[in-house]
Amino acid sequence: MKYDLVIIGGGAAGMMTAISTFRCHPDWKILLLEKNSTLGRKILITGNGRCNLTNVNLNTTYFNNPEFVSPVLKQFSYKEIDNFFDDLGLLVYEEKKGNTGKIFPVSDAASSVVNLLGDAVEKSKVEVKTEVICENVVNTSDGFLIKIKNNKNDILADKVVLTTGGKTYPALGADGNGFDLAKKLGHKIITPVPSGVPLEGKNKLTQELQGLKIPVEISVLKNNKKVTGDLMFAKYGLSGTAVLSLSRDLSIFLNRENQKEVTVLLNFMPGYDFDLAVDFWSKRKQNNLERDIVVDWCGVFPPKFSNVFLKMVGVAGKYSEINKSTIEKLVSLLINYEYKITATRGWNEAEFTAGGIDCEEIDPITLESKKIAGLYFAGEVIDVDGDIGGYNLSWAWASGFVVGQSV
Mind listing the domains of the chain with CATH numbers? Predict the structure, then answer.
């Protein structure tokens, strides 16, 4: 059986590619292959099941390889994504908490997104085959020969799009198969590592503060990258929005560059530098000389944190019993607490994949391979990943749309 186009991977990018291609070429014979039993399974778990499908602040600054991403977003950015889902009948809203610009369906159900996309694919008359595993794609003089596992009937296509995703959530079928297919076709793969992932590293704080969430400013000592958000102390180390947002660089250091540990600095008084913090606590002391320090700290931090932190640094009693040097010692630890990260959690706990097919080998305007005519890529299989906040799904929609127009 020969097709005009075969799309390998039925996730966000694959479904968008199918819809976009059909709208340009309604007469084409298009096949969408998916290894799972249904399309869009990974979409169902995004945004904690709510599907943070895009962001009003969508631009290249939120991605690695911004120069590569730019031509794609110029063709299909926030406005176009919003219009696309509006045309599908999906009502959305901007989450105001934290003023992050995140966009969710009004239903707060990722299944709404999957159902409407699935309906659009069905109406496009794109042929869909599920529970299909592609073992190889061979570039021949007659087109692309797609070899299917446990199937004698190979598939021939004039053009092929790899939308196989990355390696996160392997239980949902993301096993990096697309990287293997691209590599066999002669493409370079930037080593994939987990991103948006909790970090491992034990010390006194994590041992005693498991389950506690606290706002922090966290920075990487190695490159001075800094993020503010929530930190969650866990049995294995650190999690929370701030940690996940900063984890990409740390994962590259640890998993791709094989460094043994990376030091991060935790500032438990976000927005305060040393002088401001010393002034803050000096005034607290002056106004509450006879108040127990632990009790006073409970007005600023969670009680559990106050007890553990003050005990750890050996400070107790009333404010009248400590001097300025003790306050300075406390402040130094509060705003520059060194924490050594020794590993990241694995693919099952990662939000995204950092790495993939080298962008240098892909046309940034059409997303066609520079090595093989008729071979295209979209979504997470490319070495493009964005910050937490709907940026990665935005890339899936935008790249899938562009490929559909380009082919």
Answer: 2-193+349-406 (3.50.50.60), 198-345 (no CATH)
- In 222-269, beta strands by DSSP E: 226-233, 237-239, 262-267
Residue 380 DSSP SS3: helix
pTM: 0.93
Q: What is the CA radius of gyration of the chain?
A: 25
How far apart CA 101 and CA 111 sit, in angstroms, is: 21
- Which residues have CB under 8 Å from 224's CB, separation 6+? none
The continuous run of DSSP H or E covering 138 comes out as: strand 134-140
Query: Residue type for 38, please?
Result: T
Under a CB-based contact definition with an 8 Å cutoff, are residues 282 and 233 in contact? no
* Cα–Cα distance measured from residue 148 to residue 288, given in angstroms and rounded to the nearest whole number: 74
Mean predicted confidence (pLDDT) in 62-89? 98
pLDDT tens across 94-128, in order? Answer: 999 878 999 999 999 999 999 999 999 999 989 99
What pLDDT, in 10s, does the model give residues 187-246? 999 999 999 999 999 888 888 999 999 999 999 988 888 999 999 999 999 999 999 999
Residue identified by tokens 């990258």 is 225
In this structure, how many other beta carbons lie within 10 angstroms of the beta carbon of residue 79?
10
Mean pLDDT of 338-353: 96
